[in-house]
Amino acid sequence: MTETSLTIYQQHHLRPVFDHHAAYLYGPMVHASKAHVVMLAEQALIPAESAAQMLRGLLALEGDRPEEFVYDGSVEDVYYTLERRLAEAAGITTAQLNVQLARSRNDLDAGVFRMVLRAQLLAVFDELVSAGTTLLDRADRHADVVVIGYTHRRPAQPTSMGHVLAGYAEALTGQAMAYAAMLEEMNRSPLGSCAFAGTDLDIASGRLAELLGFDEVIVNSYEAVAGADHLARNGALNAQALATGARVARTLMDWLSWEWVVTPEEFTQGSSIMPQKRNPVVLEHLVSMAGAAAADAASVLNNVGAAWWEDSNNATTDVQMRLWESNDRARRFFALLSGLFVRLEPLRPPTGEAIVASGATTTAAADALARHGVPFRGAHSVVGRLIRGGAPSTWTEEGVRSAAEAVGVAGELTDAAVRDLIAAAVRPELVLRRRQADGPGEDAVRAQVKRLRSALEGSAVRVAALRERLQRAEAKLAGAVAERAAR
Hints:
The protein is mostly helical. About 65% of the residues lie in helices and about 5% in strands. It has three domains: about 100 residues, Orthogonal Bundle (Fumarase C, Chain B, domain 1), CATH 1.10.275; about 280 residues, Fumarase/aspartase (Central domain) (Fumarase C, Chain A, domain 2, Up-down Bundle); about 60 residues. The protein has 16 helices and eight strands. It has a two-stranded antiparallel sheet with strand order 1-2. The longest helix has about 45 residues.
């Protein structure tokens, strides 16, 4: 059909949706249809000859290239395109097809959507674990590189580069757990629910789930078709994970501006007018990608919330594009992070003198007094008077005692306390000796890396087990199809 022969609805909705959805849905629909035909034959709901005919046709459709399909208006959507091509491949008319017996587009779409999202989320998980592993490696490597930690964009306390990176690695580890849990939740089958109320035919929904790698059948057939919580959760988890990564990217922009680290050459772009410029725009792109993920999540939630609790395109078909793009973006986001951090090296971290001059050591100085029995508020006041009088590098024992006298804690000040205060104030590298398990001490950070690596690997084991189940299911389906197609 020509452009002018398409209706307005076809031109402006059905064709754009078909063009976008065909490459995503057609292959999984063929795969799900093979399992459905096998189940129907096993349940004696269709003749063995009919099953063999359709299975041979479905095997032929595996060679199709749906991304090259052209919407001509002769069928409504991707599903009916499959029916038409199956009839042609099987050498029968569409009126003779049994592929949709005891099945609706409702439960087929719901199942195929889960299959597509499952495959995408596995890819997202892989890149996330790679990024987490990279961050842990770098945290271990740079556990002895002292930098200034900031709060509210102001110098706050000394920490280590490894401590900061391990902190983000912990966030990634938690996100890996969340993605693994979501994959397990996603891996439940709605197939067999038909329109929403099931069927009087003696189908085997559990067998369909088994052949397609689903771990179980959704308990309630209405929820199987109407439910969209898994879709909202997918969009929200991507938005959450990328938002955290974007915050890290913003901090990394500062590190680059201060020349604490250098951007790998392949992650920079040049200027069209300034020859000296190498712009780390990848970090800007990461922030923008997080914003797009948030927009996709909002779109999914808005559409789901605008739909009735029943089969509705608002809460199913119309949100799929947003999730497919969100998942692809999340995969690329974590791939960029991993590739960036694996090449990121310290360039000129702040010197001890610079850290001291920033005032970041004053908390440690106050804690030094507290360790010697000076009440916290008094110790805090002493150091406050000292910092108002000059940078820590200018402090003297006499000055400390004078400040203590003014505050009213001089009687509690020992010589050892004064010496410890001054040492803490001018030696930021002492933070690397801190023994607190979750702190920036060098040994502590390396212990954190070890613990987080174990947790990350635990999530990877869960997902690897899911992959093994999917591979076994695929082999089981292939065997059942080959056996019945040969009859």
